[in-house]
């Protein structure tokens, strides 16, 4: 379920199949420009009474537009079918292990798309990337990013190693290698981000090729999971792609 004029329209622009759209009369007037392409793409459309919208909504002040989206078909790498192939030879992957806060997950997805990270891997008990809070927080990024899921760190690492992708475990430990000292200019890389409270599992840390950390000068012991992911992704993408950068 996608909610809101902008998110629903974004689902359509991203090629997501719309099984049904529900909208109020007021929404039809207020968000006509957003609703028009949605109505053209939707298999079914229903105009609902105003008092129904709060019952469907996950927000306090619903806009009155809701879409039931079909799950995207994904290829072997987790990318939505029909997505343009990557232009770079160097793969960059973000692995999230047991990240359970929907707000963190949404922020990570949005940041990943903004920075050019196209592949995310979810390990173990991560929250649902199609949950309402994640969808809103990601600004629709989940419709376009490659997403793979694995039941545990060991099975994920096995696949990444088979693909010759080097895994780095991010830890709040000053004895680990500073992420700023890793050169991502060549090769294929995956950076692992752990649970909000407990970090990465022992298996993930021990079996990754190296432990990396974000140098900190203040008194805080660690970063929020989404903030740590943003910094790690920035470092992964910093060594290259400067020619295609635009400012947002």
Helical residue percent?
25-40%
Give the overall silhouette: elongated
| Low-pLDDT residue intervals, each spanning 5 or more residues | 241-248
CATH class of the largest domain: Alpha Beta
Overall tally of domains: 2
Alpha carbon gyration radius:
20 Å
Question: What would you give as the CATH superfamily of the largest domain?
Answer: SPOUT methyltransferase, trefoil knot domain
On the 0 to 100 scale, the average pLDDT is 90
| CATH-scheme architecture of the largest domain | 3-Layer(aba) Sandwich
Strand content: 15-25%
Within the largest sheet, what's the order of strands?
A: 7-6-5-10-8-11-9
How can the largest sheet be summarized?
7 strands, parallel
Per DSSP E runs of 2 or more residues, the count of β-strands stands at 11
Q: Sketch the topology as an H/E string, one letter per element.
A: EHEHHEHEEHEHEHEEEHEH
Give a verbal description of the structure.
Strands 7-6-5-10-8-11-9 form a 7-stranded parallel beta sheet, sandwiched between helices. The chain contains 9 helices and 11 strands. The longest helix has 14 residues, at 102-115. The protein has 2 domains: 2-69, no CATH class; 92-244, SPOUT methyltransferase, trefoil knot domain (Alpha/beta knot), CATH 3.40.1280.10. Strand 6 (119-123), helix 6 and strand 7 (146-150) form a beta-alpha-beta unit. With 248 residues, the protein is α/β, with parallel strands linked by helices.
